[in-house]
Amino acid sequence: MQNLKTASDLFIHRNTLLYRLNKIEKILNFSFEDNNICLAYLNTLQI
User: Fold this and answer.
1) Its domain of life (predicted)?
2) N or C of the chain: less Cβ packing under 10 Å?
3) Cα 17 to Cα 6: distance, rounded to the nearest angstrom
């Protein structure tokens, strides 16, 4: 993931982005490093 570009596009600091992503991982109990899980969530959101 391009954290710096993503943070810039969202007009937030990179550390804020990382904090929020970490919080999402803890709430949903998964890791963004697992491509299969990310793909499943992406497909779910597109439906």
Assistant:
1) Bacteria
2) C
3) 8
Domain count, the chain: 1
User: Which residue range is the domain that position 35 belongs to?
Assistant: 3-46
Q: For 3-45, what is each residue's pLDDT tens digit?
A: 999 999 999 999 999 999 999 999 989 888 889 988 998 999 9
What is the secondary structure of 1-45 as a DSSP string? --HHHHHHHHTS-HHHHHHHHHHHHHHHT--TT-HHHHHHHHHHH
This prediction has a pTM of: 0.74
pLDDT at 20: 96
Amino acid, res. 39: L
